Amino acid sequence: MATPPNNNGLAKAKWLKKVQWDENGLVPVIAQEAGSNDVLMFAWMNREALARTVELGEAVYWSRSRKKLWHKGEESGHVQKVLEIRLDCDEDVVLLKIEQAGGIACHTGRHSCFFQKFEGDALEGDWQVAEPVLKDPAIIYPEPAKPAPKAVAKPNKTKPT
């Protein structure tokens, strides 16, 4: 794996300055499958994540919940090979054209995170599952093994003589 980019050098990178980062230093990112044009997921990147994505050729996002970089597929093996990066007309949304390893982008085990489809009218409509689970998330993300309970020494009940 390549070494992380020097953050001092990133501050001078012209292409990173062009992105309109939000007040938290983030930009929304859409991952689109290159072959099918399916929208697979939405995520966020900070400057370092976008620079790492360019450097590695694989998607690296910023996890807002974990507050750290997240190399897509680091746990599941479902990495996203980046074929093309685009910036929208307002320069505030990034589009990644990707190849999705394993065909699964969503942590629910589905091809796309956009697996729910609205059906019906404004009063009676509801969200319906429109894509099947391809692989059980429990298999993709197995629980880490719990350490065996420690044996507790029983007190010696014999009386000294």
Automatic annotation (TrEMBL):
Pathway(s) of this molecule: Amino-acid biosynthesis; L-histidine biosynthesis; L-histidine from 5-phospho-alpha-D-ribose 1-diphosphate: step 2/9; Amino-acid biosynthesis; L-histidine biosynthesis; L-histidine from 5-phospho-alpha-D-ribose 1-diphosphate: step 3/9
Ranges for domain Phosphoribosyl-AMP cyclohydrolase: 41-115
Binding of Mg(2+), residues: D88, D90, D92
Full protein name: Phosphoribosyl-AMP cyclohydrolase
InterPro entries per record: PRA-CH (IPR026660), PRib_AMP_CycHydrolase_dom (IPR002496), PRib_AMP_CycHydrolase_sf (IPR038019)
Pfam families noted in UniProt: PRA-CH (PF01502)
Any one biological process term the GO annotation gives: L-histidine biosynthetic process
Organism whose genome encodes this protein: Rugamonas fusca
